[in-house]
């Protein structure tokens, strides 16, 4: 699969009043494949928002190159940048709709700026409003819409000029969970039915689980982990990714929960990673049985990512626990004793 976006050793530094500088994005190299949905996650200050501004050339990198559709945005003139940005759709956390324009007027606006004739503008606007399920609200104003409806207008407007790339910057952060699911489902349709490549900037791991093909994890301006969304959920390699995964899956006991479990269960507390490997549960049970280890399930959570099972089960183990852990690990089963 070819890359629609290529970042090559990109850094963005901002000057401070004391004469020093801080790296908001620090030596990031990344490819976004044509036709995929890539989620970029990180806590506040990780560099996500700066990264998205580099992708649409609203910020120029201090060093490195940003290629979108084969064009190095760092080398374009302002006129060339305007043309390049017309091929990049944007949706925002706060919707950024024109309050004085109707729903149809908001969607038609980029087409009018691009010089598209009225007949074609009307046709395309109706087509997009039908796609997002708001054709019956074409003459409404933004103040008459719910948050979810406003974001659907934002998506329709972003798609008006048929961009191959859509950037979604915290697009569901202002929405309730049910509406978030609806908007993410719509973005999945945009990707699947229209073939639009989507980069989702978010701090919400649930959003990643619902929509992304791959996920990139940022921390302190650096790209610390990237991989298939299932792989990152089932086997996060870095501390940052582990924190995000646990915040979404809740499959490992928190410190408070672990203290309660220790009070109730005097044995050793061990968590076993659950994946979609065939016969995994049978192998776990066999390791306990053949080593004479008694296991009681005390905590856990298993969910599906892209129709594949992942999660963790936490047991109280008594008996020959060390032998059981050795047997599990020898059989390729990931097991950790909780500290």
TrEMBL record:
Alphabetical UniProt keywords: Amino-acid transport, ATP-binding, Cell membrane, Membrane, Nucleotide-binding, Translocase, Transport
Alphabetized SUPFAM superfamilies for the sequence: ACT-like (SSF55021), P-loop containing nucleoside triphosphate hydrolases (SSF52540)
GO cellular component: plasma membrane
GO biological process: amino acid transport
Entries under PROSITE patterns matching the protein: ABC_TRANSPORTER_1, ABC_TRANSPORTER_2
GO molecular function terms listed in the Swiss-Prot or TrEMBL record: ATP binding; ATP hydrolysis activity
Cited SMART domains: AAA, NIL
Domain ABC transporter: start-end pairs: 5-245
Family classification: Belongs to the ABC transporter superfamily.
The protein's role, per its UniProt record: Part of the ABC transporter FtsEX involved in cellular division. Has ATPase activity.
Quaternary structure (record): Homodimer. Forms a membrane-associated complex with FtsX.
Protein name: D-methionine transport system ATP-binding protein
Organism: Kineococcus aurantiacus
């Amino acid at each position: 699969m070819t890359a629609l976006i290529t970042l090559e050793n990109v850094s963005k530094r901002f000057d401070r009043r004391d004469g020093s500088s801080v790296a908001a994005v620090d030596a990031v190299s990344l490819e976004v494949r044509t036709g995929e949905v890539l989620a970029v996650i990180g806590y506040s200050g990780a560099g996500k928002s700066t990264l998205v501004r580099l992708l649409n050339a609203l910020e120029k990198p201090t060093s490195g190159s940003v290629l979108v559709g084969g064009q190095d945005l760092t080398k374009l003139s302002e006129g060339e940048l305007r043309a390049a940005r017309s091929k990049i759709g944007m949706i925002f956390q706060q919707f950024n709709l024109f309050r004085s324009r109707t729903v149809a007027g908001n969607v038609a606006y980029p087409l009018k700026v691009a010089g598209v004739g009225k007949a074609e503008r009307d046709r395309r606007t109706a087509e997009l409003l039908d796609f997002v399920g708001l054709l019956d609200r074409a003459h409404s104003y933004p103040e008459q819409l719910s948050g979810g409806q406003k974001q659907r207008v934002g998506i329709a407007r972003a798609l008006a000029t048929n961009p191959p790339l859509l950037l979604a910057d915290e697009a569901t952060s202002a929405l309730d969970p049910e509406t978030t699911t609806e908007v993410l489902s719509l973005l999945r349709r945009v990707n699947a039915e229209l073939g639009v490549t989507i980069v989702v900037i978010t701090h919400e791991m649930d959003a990643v689980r619902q929509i992304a093909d791959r996920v990139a994890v940022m921390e302190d301006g650096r790209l610390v982990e990237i991989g298939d969304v299932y792989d990152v959920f089932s086997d996060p390699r870095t501390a940052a990714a582990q924190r995000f995964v646990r915040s979404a899956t809740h499959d490992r006991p928190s410190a408070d929960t672990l203290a309660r479990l220790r009070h109730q269960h005097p044995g050793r507390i061990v968590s076993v990673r659950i994946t979609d490997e065939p016969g995994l549960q049978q192998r776990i049970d066999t390791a306990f049985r053949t080593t004479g280890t008694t296991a009681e399930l005390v905590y856990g959570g298993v969910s599906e990512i892209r129709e594949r099972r992942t999660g963790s089960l936490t047991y109280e183990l008594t008996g020959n626990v060390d032998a059981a852990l050795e047997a599990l690990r020898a059989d390729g089963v990931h097991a950790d004793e909780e500290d």
